[in-house]
Amino acid sequence: MKRGTGLDQAFPAAPAVRTRAIMLAVPDLEEPYFAELTALVVRRAEEHGLSVVIYQTWGEHEREIDVVNRIGVPPTDGLLHIPRALSVADLTRRRSPGPLVLLGEHIDSSPFAHVTIDNAAAAGAATLHLLERGCVRPAMIGPREPASDASNRRYAGYASALEQRGVVLDESLVGGVRAFSAKEGYDAALRLVDSGARFDGVVCSNDSVALGVMAGLAARRVSVPGDVRVIGIDGVSMGAFSVPSLSTVEPDRELMVTVALSILMKQMATALSMDLPVEQVTVPFTVVQRDSSG
Predict the structure, then answer these.
(1) 242 located within any domain
(2) CA 111 to CA 75: how far, in whole Å?
(3) Domain of 190?
(4) How far apart are CA 41 and CA 277, in angstroms?
(5) CB of 136 within 8 A of CB of 200?
(6) CATH number, domain containing residue 139
(7) In this protein, which residues make up the domain named Transcriptional regulator LacI/GalR-like sensor (predicted)?
(8) Is 125 in the same domain as 59?
(9) pLDDT of residue 12
(10) How far, CA to CA in Å, does 174 sit from each of 169, 202, 258?
(11) Is 8 helix (H, G, I), strand (E, B) or coil?
């Protein structure tokens, strides 16, 4: 992938004056995972003498397209982008090619640099953890509407783990959310309990949803982990201090950020006439058992 040399180029490889700044495009800083990831990016970037400009996209397709095309944003030397709605077509059509690393959510068949976790495997590991703890009817709360790649893959991982263990997938145990928030998790837990469905575990699409789920179960006097075991995904710090403390699947965020910045800085140092270095890296995760899964 070669960069253009037109006057509208957003991220020139060797501008007369470098900004010594990079941009981080993030869906929503109200989500604890993104807030913690952003803080880590800022800390690690500063170690390399780089400032970070933060741009919230709210996961909206139009805003994600704007930022990759450098519309309405300040000049920077490179872009770390956590996409929710972008497609490969959006990226290949961008008018302002330059240093770009996608962080987090997966884009199928992407020719761009990308550092992520295996979302399907993470959800599968969470589901298997509950099954190994004795659950026979684990629910899932978290498929998102509008859909996101991460939630779709995490649902697929949940379904695959059930099939692997010979557990029939019961769609009545799958609750959707409109956002990855504690409020959505709380409301989804109330709906699930009030539906009368029998379940003894809940796999949640992320930790924010899981914290809300535990609050919703408590509101309906359902004991965690006595009646229902709960696990989230993402490893946000507040999960260790909830009551009960939250079991989770924790990606290696330190490695994720370190690798993403390394790739981005290689791209920023690449001569204009050269192809940008492209690496696609999947970082490992760890299942962290705490009180919520017993």
Answers:
(1) yes
(2) 24
(3) 119-250+289-293
(4) 20
(5) yes
(6) 3.40.50.2300
(7) 129-293
(8) no
(9) 41
(10) 9, 9, 35
(11) coil
CB-CB neighbours of 240 under 10 Å? 12
Instruction: Band the pLDDT of 41: cuts 50, 70, 90.
Output: very high
Instruction: Tell me the pLDDT tens digit for each residue of 140-166.
Output: 999 877 777 788 999 999 999 999 999
Q: Closest Cα partner for 126 from 289, 294, 291?
A: 289
Q: What is the DSSP letter of 20?
A: -
Which DSSP category does 212 fall into? H
* Token digits of residue 129: 């953890």
As given in the structure block, the two tokens for residue 253 are 């965020």
Please state the length of the chain.
294
| Phi and psi at residue 86, to the nearest 5° | -65, 145
Instruction: Return the closest-CA partner of residue 264 out of 29, 33, 48, 31.
Output: 48
Task: Report the DSSP beta bridge partners of residue 116.
Answer: 282
Residue 190 lies in a domain: yes
Please say whether the beta carbons of 222 and 95 come within 8 A.
no
CB 256 within 8 A of CB 288: no
User: Residue 3: what pLDDT?
Assistant: 38
**Secondary structure class of 130 (helix, strand, coil):** helix
Tokens of 10: 């957003």
239-242: which pairs have CB atoms within 8 A and are 24 or more residues apart?
239/207, 239/210, 239/211, 239/290, 240/290, 242/211, 242/214, 242/292
Look up the pTM and report it.
0.89
Is residue 9 in a domain? no
Q: Is the pLDDT score of 279 beyond 60?
A: yes
Q: Tell me 293's DSSP state.
A: G
Quick check: 2 pLDDT over 50?
A: no
User: Tell me: the pLDDT tens digits for 222-268?
Assistant: 999 999 999 999 999 999 999 999 999 999 999 999 999 999 999 99
Alpha-carbon span 73 to 40, nearest angstrom: 22
**For residue 51, what are its two tokens?**
């400032």
31, 208 contact by CB (below 8 A): yes
